[in-house]
Design brief:
- The protein is α/β, with parallel strands linked by helices.
- It has 2 domains: about 260 residues, Spore Coat Polysaccharide Biosynthesis Protein SpsA, Chain A; about 80 residues, no CATH class.
- It is built from 11 helices and 17 strands.
- Strand 2, helix 2 and strand 3 form a beta-alpha-beta unit.
- Helix 7 runs antiparallel to helix 8.
- It is globular.
- About 40% of the residues are buried.
C-alpha cells in the first residue's frame, strides 16, 4: 500500500505580511520552528512515505523555492499549475499523476503551511486513514475542537463505519460564535483541517461523478500524462477547469466518506495570533524572535525582530513585526485584518512591498 503525499503549496498567506510576500508566501516562512513550514510538512512524513513518492503542487512563481526547500524531490514530482484554480483541480492533477503509475496508490493530501506538534500521533492516524482509504473510502481527518473556533469549518461526525473511521453526517461552514459553541458542546463535531486521504482511482471516479464539468479536461490531461506534450496540454487545459474547492466539489456530495477524529497538536497557523500555539512563550506569555528584540513590561505579545533593534515597551496582547523593510503593529485579536493591509498596498500600487 504505497502512500503518495501531495503537498498543497499554492497559498499566498497575506495574513503574515510583512514577512510573507508574493515571492515568499506563508509556507516558505519559519513560523513554527527554525525551518519553513513546507519543510516541516515533508519531514513529519519520514518513515511513512518517501520524498520520491511525494508530490508538490504550486504555482509558477513558487516552483524553484519549493524544489530548493524539499530536498531530493524528483523534478517530475513538482506539479506546476499554470494558474490557480482552487483545490479540486489541483488535487485532480496530482491524482492523475499518481494513477498513471499506481491506480490504487493512496494520496495523502496535506496543506503545506500547517503545524503538527505530535508527529507520532499524526503518523498513526494517517496510517489508519490509509487503511480505510484502501477500501475505497474518501477519508478526511477531523481535529478534536479545543475551543468554539469561528475561523474553521466543521464536520458533523456520525456512527462508526464497518471498515473503520466514522460516518460524515455533514460539512458545516465557518459558524458564528453561538453556533460554534453549540457544535463543541454537542461533542458531535470536529474541525475540518483540509487533510484528505484516498486512492487515486477513487478520487478520480468521484470527480467524474460529482464534477462532470471537469471530465473532458481531465480525460485530455490523462492521455497526456508522461508524454513530452504534457506541459503544453496542461497550459491549455488547466485554466479552463472550474475553480472549486475539493470540499464543495466532491466531499460535500460523495457518499463513500469517512472521517477520523484526532488530536495531534494541529494548528493551521492562521495568523500572527496563532504563533503562541506553535512556539514557546516566556513567563509573561510573550513569543519573541530575533537577537535584536527588546521587550520590556509586556504581556501576551508576539514580537518578531529583524536585524535591527526592535524595542517594545508596556504592551499587552499586541503583535509587532519588523521584516527589514516594513513594520506591522496590530492587536492580536485583529490579526486576521492584516490582509487588509495587503489590499491597501495593492490599491496604492506599492508593489515593492507586496
Amino acid at each position: 500500500m504505497a502512500l503518495h503525499p501531495v503537498i498543497m503549496a499554492g497559498g499566498s498567506g497575506t495574513r503574515f505580511w510583512p514577512l510573507s510576500r508574493k515571492a515568499r508566501p506563508k509556507q516558505f516562512l519559519p513560523l513554527a520552528s527554525k525551518n519553513p513550514l513546507i519543510s516541516d510538512t515533508v519531514s513529519r512524513l519520514k518513515g511513512l512515505a518517501t520524498v520520491k513518492d511525494t508530490l508538490i503542487v504550486c504555482g509558477p512563481s513558487h516552483a524553484k523555492q519549493a524544489v530548493k526547500l524539499v530536498k531530493g524531490l524528483p523534478k517530475k514530482n513538482l506539479l506546476v499549475e499554470p494558474v490557480a484554480r482552487n483545490t479540486a483541480p489541483a488535487i485532480a492533477l496530482a491524482a492523475l499523476a499518481v494513477a498513471a503509475k499506481d491506480p490504487e496508490g493512496i494520496l495523502v493530501v496535506l496543506p503545506s503551511d500547517h503545524h503538527v506538534a505530535d508527529t507520532k500521533g499524526f503518523q498513526r492516524i494517517l496510517s489508519e486513514a490509509a487503511r480505510v482509504a484502501a477500501g475505497g473510502h474518501l477519508v478526511t481527518l477531523g481535529i478534536t475542537p479545543q475551543r468554539p473556533e469561528t475561523g474553521y469549518g466543521y464536520i458533523q461526525v456520525g456512527a462508526v463505519l464497518p471498515g473503520g473511521g466514522r460516518q460524515v453526517k455533514a460539512f458545516r461552514e465557518k459558524p458564528d460564535p453561538e453556533t460554534a459553541r453549540r457544535y463543541v458542546d454537542s461533542g458531535e463535531y470536529v474541525w475540518n483541517a483540509g487533510i484528505f486521504i484516498f486512492r487515486a482511482d477513487a478520487i478520480l471516479a468521484a470527480f467524474d461523478e460529482h464534477m462532470p464539468e471537469m471530465r473532458k479536461g481531465l480525460d485530455t490531461l490523462r492521455k497526456a500524462v508522461g508524454k513530452r506534450t504534457f506541459p503544453a496540454v496542461l497550459k491549455r487545459v488547466f485554466p479552463k477547469l472550474p475553480s472549486v474547492s475539493i470540499d464543495y466539489g466532491v466531499m460535500e456530495k460523495a457518499k463513500n466518506l469517512a472521517v477520523l477524529p484526532g488530536d495531534f497538536g494541529w494548528s493551521d497557523v492562521g495568523s500572527f495570533s496563532a504563533i503562541p500555539e506553535v512556539r514557546p512563550a516566556d513567563e509573561h506569555g510573550n513569543v519573541v524572535s530575533g537577537p535584536e528584540a527588546v521587550v520590556v513590561d509586556c504581556k501576551g505579545c508576539v514580537v518578531l525582530a529583524d536585524k535591527r533593534p526592535l524595542a517594545v515597551v508596556g504592551l499587552t496582547d499586541m503583535v509587532v513585526v519588523d521584516s527589514g523593510d516594513a513594520v506591522l503593529v496590530v492587536p492580536k485579536d485583529k490579526s486576521q485584518d492584516v490582509r487588509k493591509v495587503v489590499e491597501s498596498l495593492k490599491a496604492r500600487k506599492r508593489d515593492k512591498f507586496l
